[in-house]
Amino acid sequence: MRTSRGALPHAAEPPCRPTPRADSVTGTDFRIVELTDLLTEIDAATRSEAAAAAGTGPARTVWDAASVALLPPRLGRPYLRPGDCRAVVASRAGRPVGILPLLRGTPGQTPQALQDPGPELAARLPADPGDLLFVGGCVDLVAGAAVAAELTDEERRTVRRGLVDRAWDRARRDGLVPLALHVRDAEVADFLGPGRRAAEIGVSCLLRLPSDGSDASYLAGLGQSGRRTVLKDRRSVAGAGLRSEVRPAAELTAEAAELVVAVKRRYGVEEHPRLVRARLARWAADPAGERVAFAVCDAGGPVAVTFGCVLGTGLEIYETGLADGHPHRHEAYAESLFQAPIAFAQARGITEIDLGLDATIPKTRRGAALAPTWVVTSDQ
Q1: pLDDT of residue 43
Q2: Averaged over 115-126, what is the pLDDT?
Q3: Is 48 exposed, middle or buried (0-12, 13-18, 19+ CB in 10 A)?
Q4: Which residues contact 235 (CB under 8 A, 6 or more apart)?
């Protein structure tokens, strides 16, 4: 069904999952390993890839995933609990080609992603969050698997299905309730199988830019209303005397912490600035991708800061901090979250900006397309 720009097609049912052939996983070994063991394996692979870069070892593995949060280098994040973290690993000829993280829930502690689950999902949750097994992770509002980019599209789907099937089997054997939160629309068919169902839980916003990097081409694709919005953004920022700059993310985590706290507080969430500063610093130091910050400043310093991660031809937005009560709050927001990242992407040959979940109206006005995200549960 064709839809107008920004409209979300009817998504009451996710795409159907084709039945794989009986021999579809031939030659692929699936195993479940502890996080600490996998980290050792990844470390060895990293050293091997360093040798490959020097021409003395095998070619390095390039991973494909719905989010940078799912890439193998991120599995070493210090805020994950190694004792409760495992992964399903798919290997061919002794070499990993697929990784699906599994995170055990914490007894008595409901994760933030499930604070307001809605009645349908709430009915399927166990009384104790410690009985949950988050399939595909539960840290950055995305669940999915990392698969080797060298695989064909059909091989990727087959590997993804095999990983998810084994995760569900493991949950059943361990007496846990499997749950995959915010599976992206392009992968949800691979998460489905016998005894599983999916329900829409959110909306992702993706801005696709012309491959020629032309601002004129971008504006032409917006339509009259979109062009008016974007050009008004640019005039307003200039008229407000705000300046924009792009800096390494690590240089702005301390200044941005108070701005992030202000945004959280505006929506009824209280976080201590010191904890936010530590979280942003960990994120900025993560080895996956290039971590950047889009800062919008007045004479007194940053008014808005948006953090993003560059990987290949994609830019993934992480979080935005914004001063509360500033006279040019709206202008700073539009510049930091939209105009500065777009200009950066055009200059760097980036063709996709993942603007994250929800807040769809300001994003679609500037050209983003919408797609549902899904929660996958057992059909019981």
Answers
A1: 67
A2: 84
A3: middle
A4: none
